[in-house]
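Quick one:
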Amino acid sequence: MSHAVIVAHGSPSNPDEQQEALRALARAVGALVPEWEVRGATLAAGDALGEALRGLDRPLVYPFFMAAGWFTGKELPRRIAALGAEVRQMAPFGLEPELPRLIAEATTKAALDAGLEPAESGLLLAAHGSRTARRSKDSSYAMAENLTRLTGFGRIAVGLIEEPPFLADTAREIGRGVCLPFFALHAGHVADDVPQALRAAGFEGPCLPPVGEHPGVPALIAAALRRAATHAAG
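Output:
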């Protein structure tokens, strides 16, 4: 049997709920790849990462993050090394090749369900951003560029929580459309900061669950695990 551990940041203020969300995701992925044992852990939940890695021989580690930034490039490898574990770390969730198409389909459907004509409305990506790591912002803009090619929205824009262009300002400019939180989990920013910014801006239109909660995500991860295994075997 092959082994994989899905790892997310989690929420320091609410570690148990996010840890359970990762375990649920791992179970959903594992149901699609029964030849694998798939576990889930967040970095914020005590020794969850150590428990998930315990007893596994060179498992695949799948970073459930939206960008290849500091956490995936520095902090996650540091924590794994501190545990004395040997793993094979994969590219993060936000770089999945089929993710833009999944987002395009979900946001277009949400617009039509809300009675909005995509060509006459906007798509707002609500993302984290960072004052210290540019890759977080860059990944959001790269996704917006992909969605410009894949959707018919009149305008696609990015609004950030921690750096300009701030979400409330971008939401005010768009005015009406669909907002997609470009986050893996429904943690503090998605639960609090995003809706507060949309209310302050008077944004009209649906705000979807974070992209990591889309029902098609387990299939994306399962496919990524199988690709990685095939590549390793080759």
